[in-house]
Amino acid sequence: MPALVEIARALVLLLVPLAAWRLGFSYSDWAALALVALGVAIWLGVYRPRLSRRRAELEVVVIPGSALGHWFTGRMGAGLTAGASVLVGVPVLAWVALRSPPLVIAVLLALCVVAGLLSQWAIRVLGRSLTPPFARVMGHGIGSTVAALLALLPLVWLNWAVIAVPHEITSVGLSEAVAAQIAQLPPRAGWLREGLGLFAALDGAKLWLAAQHREALWVGLIFSVDAALVSFVVARSFVAVMEFGRLISGRDE
Predict the structure, then answer these.
(1) I need a surface site. Which of 5, 51, 97, 138 has the fewest CB within 10 A?
(2) How far apart are CA 7 and CA 10, in angstroms?
(3) Distance of CA 244 to CAs 74, 129, 145, 189, Å?
(4) Which DSSP state fits 159?
């Protein structure tokens, strides 16, 4: 039961800012403040376990009382890893929340639940042989990776066989298809629209390729890589948010 409670709490922490972002983006760029809150959750959820593991390593490597102990704290490495997770995870989650069809969102929500369950199971199993800092970080990696691989097939199938390609895209060129996707963003200037324009351009190119070369094997490979990247980022981000939930509930180890 505690495992399900942690997963439910993480789902709330993930979905509330994404819902606020999706509802508010049509009206104002201030909706990005919801993404800032999500970014903080992901950063802390990655930083704390990584820092604990790094400190456990340094206790073995650095002699107690050494002058180098003031420099080798593990904070920089943990902070950079957490920062990279935010820089990749938040934009992908923001775009998924804005533009993914309901079926894809349903699969990604199931992916989050599976990632949470597998991560907790992996942590318990590894905890029989490893110290908690190592078991937790490795469990996060194993659980999220396996869950992402399990979600890969349904995501590729949905994008390839179920979700319809707009008919009008079959009669235009690549540049027109990309421009049409960008035009669907709110018609206001700003850094946020420019940033999301990149995701819109990639979506337009993907749809155009699907419409023009649907029977080509290499197009299916592109869809597979795209689905794999999204599923992996979503799974890792959710596990980080779940770890953040442990932190704010006082269960951080």
Answers:
(1) 5
(2) 5
(3) 19, 25, 19, 34
(4) I
